[in-house]
Amino acid sequence: MDAKTAYQELVERGRERADLAALAGLAGWDLRTYIPKKGHAHRARVFATVSRVLHRKATDPRIGELLAAVEDSSLMEDPDVAANVRAWRRDYERATRVPESLAAEIAEAASRGESAWAEFKKKNDWEGFLPYLKRNIELKRAYAEAVGYEDEVYDALLEDYEEGLRTRDLVPLFEELKGPATRLVRRIAASAKKPRTDFLHRAYPKAEQRGFILEVLPELGYDMDAGRLDETAHPFAIRIHPGDVRITTRYFEDFFNAAFFGSVHEAGHAMYEQGLPEEHWGTPLGQSVSLGVHESQSRMWENLVGRSAGFWRRYFPRARARFEALADVDEEAFVFAVNEVRPSLIRVEADEVTYNLHILLRFELELALFRGELAPEDLPEAWNRKMEAYLGVVPKTYAEGVMQDVHWAGGAFGYFPTYTLGNVYAAQLFEAAEQALGSLEPHFAEGDFAPLLGWLREKVHRHGRRYPPAELIQRATGRPVSAGPLLRYLEGKFGALYGLT
Ligand code: ZN
Description:
Blueprint: H1 3-31, H2 40-58, H3 61-71, H4 79-97, H5 100-122, H6 126-147, H7 153-158, H8 167-190, H9 206-220, E1 229-231, E2 237-241, E3 244-249, H10 257-274, H11 291-305, H12 309-322, H13 331-337, H14 352-370, H15 379-391, H16 417-437, H17 441-445, H18 450-459, H19 469-477, H20 484-497
Parallel strand pairs: 1-3
Antiparallel strand pairs: 2-3
Helix pairs in contact: 1-2, 1-3, 3-4, 5-6, 8-14, 8-20, 9-10, 10-11, 11-16, 12-13, 14-15, 14-16, 16-18, 16-20
């Protein structure tokens, strides 16, 4: 087979899969926003059908033949070809190693697990939920054996979310964070300086919240001609194509933070997708690289930009003009309030400092489970012990403890660490951007976000999956991935806010 023809066919096949996935994405967006109640059952069928078709296409032996034809050719000297072929080969190998029957069992156990979780969490019934959890763990173990790994089972699970990430890299990264982060939490707790936050819980009319969000997002660089903002129960961003990346939010009329920071977070995800090179649509070079890198974009815009003093220098006067609730509040008090640090039981409500400790706990428990050092039965006790050690709070119920997240119920083990990786990458990228561009907050104060977005486009977005995530970060920042920048950022920002010495 002629290598050039083979490569062309791979591209065509990739585009066909991407177009189908785009349709499924659009159906998913509709499912989570506007679908009428009676449409749900059929929509579930639509997803099952599309995912079966996509799986068949992705594991077609023809792909193996086409890849072999290109891999043996001089076409591989073209770096674009080499990058696409490397990623296609990896995806193809992983997809074909999992027997169809196992894939079906995993999907079924995940969906049963999620329904069981919703039911048993309401009743605070850990014993009722446990069999579903055990089934997921057992199947994920079988999955890991099928896809293969070098050092340990857990690596095979990490690889699903973050290419190339290994337990042996993650353990020291979390160790680096653990001591300083727990100490910072304690120092903040001991500080006499506390923010006033009552005004965040006053009346914030939905229409004004939406108006404010739509005023801010385009200035950040979220292209509204290639996106839109809708309402949903569980906010998300979804890419149909770089020309159509939608975000959603949820409004609480008695709480400012949720919709605003949630929208900036989702817009961060969306700006990444909008920045992927359109000419590579349907090939790995046109795809986002990993969950961790994706989360680095959302967290950077949400926290390093959206919770910075420079940002509110520009937007606080506008917020105060819009919301009665802020009439007696000054800028400094507002910035302190939206950066409040308070150890809590629930991960999704956690602040920037305590968040990583919630993730650390989950990572350690997952690892112990898959290393066979912890039995699923013993999870609640281990959970509570770690909550006490890291955050100084202990849940009174399973629902606000070990059963709070849906991830394990759906068999998503190895997913949690990507949240902290996102924070680590975000701080490292931001530090490198400031080294290249100078201090960014004065730009934010002027509503000028183009230097930062331009830098991210250049260093991260335009590369798609050209490099595995750790290499992408190393190339963008000139340094290997490390927790140093995140710790410096947290110590600097919260040390100043809380007057720590
Ligand atoms: Zn996110």
